[in-house]
Specification:
The chain is built from two helices and 28 strands. It is mostly beta strands and about 350 residues long. The strands form seven sheets. The protein has a four-stranded antiparallel β-sheet. The longest helix has about 40 residues.
């Protein structure tokens, strides 16, 4: 009679599983001290990685709290202690949060994949933004709330969002960024790689288009920023073309990789209180200029991700950076922000 091989097979499978488990545990013991040393070193140098949340697109300061928004919805931090807080009772379960706004009355507005939600004194309400998945929010000079999204641009009137301009009227595909400048003009852009663009709705009611022909480095514009001199910056680019474009009084200037940026595909422009200048890329890290020195920061230096989508400076002198893989907190005194060597 032929002897069964099943017990032997079970014994071999058990042995293989045990060896594999031992190997995994062994690797864990070997890697964990390295990870701890890395974490302690960056904490001492003013760096901190925060996960969760993971993908984060927007940050907003509200008193002692810092709101975050991203793929998995809203998150909330106590920025003074760099601690993640539980969301208040009644906070809706949202997805793909792309825009946050605190209006002049202290009301929180949230742009997400199903429209717009508002939190007024802890009470939440939902609006159909009429623009599909909402991407960006702004408050105009008269107090009106504007929302941009995949179907165009809408404004809040009589308690409801009403479409102001669809993609055909805007001349580009969807709306990804909004900015109201100090003159009361509304800037609108699309980051679509093929049908992007930018426009300005002036306080007098005129629409102006901004194109590659007029001086824009690339029609795909991911975000705007107004600097202390009143110039408007366009974070533009797709593929290997684009840059950080500065526009003021009809004059253009563009920063590119050859000038010190991480790449020509700019994602965000920011100027902090000490005049440091920040330009992020989509896949190559963040460039920070202190004086005349540019420093490119990546996960190798301690960033949680490669693409910085939002920057907030808190009153204690720390910077919070939203990335595609978590939030980075950096002290304003960190050497890497001041032209010093990487740790």
């Amino acid at each position: 009679m032929k002897r069964s091989t099943k017990p032997r097979q079970r014994w071999k499978s058990g042995l293989q599983f045990g060896l594999a488990l031992a190997l995994v545990l062994g690797l864990g013991l070997a890697v964990d001290p390295v990870a701890e040393r890395f974490k302690r070193r960056h904490m001492r140098n003013g760096w901190q990685r925060l996960r969760p949340p993971h993908e984060t697109s927007a940050l907003l300061l509200e008193g002692p709290r810092l709101w975050g928004g991203g793929r998995d919805g809203l998150s909330l931090f106590d920025w003074r202690h760099a601690a993640l807080l539980p969301l208040p009772a009644g906070t809706p379960r949202l997805r793909q949060v792309r825009g946050l706004l605190l209006d002049r009355q202290g009301v929180l507005w949230v742009a997400h994949n199903s429209g717009v939600d508002r939190c007024d004194g802890g009470a939440w309400s939902h609006f159909d933004g009429t623009v599909g998945a909402a991407q960006a929010l702004a408050q105009w000079r008269d107090g009106e709330i504007w929302v941009g999204g995949e179907k165009g641009l809408a404004r809040l009137r009589d308690g409801a969002f009403r479409l102001e301009r669809n993609s055909a009227a805007l001349g580009f595909e969807g709306v990804d960024a909004l900015l109201v400048d100090r003159n009361g003009d509304l800037w609108v852009s699309s980051a679509h790689p093929l049908r992007g663009g930018a426009a300005r709705f002036t306080a007098s009611g005129r629409w102006d288009d901004f194109t590659h022909a007029s001086g824009l480095a690339h029609p795909s514009v991911a975000s705007f920023f107004e600097d202390r001199e009143g110039a408007v910056w366009f974070a533009s680019g797709y593929g290997e073309h684009g840059g950080a474009c500065r526009y003021k009084d009809g004059q253009w200037m563009t920063l590119r990789k050859r000038d010190g940026l991480a790449s020509d595909r700019a994602r965000l422009v920011y100027e902090d209180r000490t005049s440091r200048f920040w330009v992020s890329s989509e896949t190559d890290g963040l460039a920070v200029r202190a004086g005349a020195v540019w420093r490119v920061l990546t996960p190798r230096q301690g960033m949680t991700g490669w693409e910085v989508k939002s920057v907030v400076e808190t009153p204690d002198g720390f910077f919070w950076l939203a990335t595609e893989d978590g939030v980075t907190r950096i002290s304003g005194g960190a050497p890497e922000l001041n032209g010093g060597a990487a740790p």
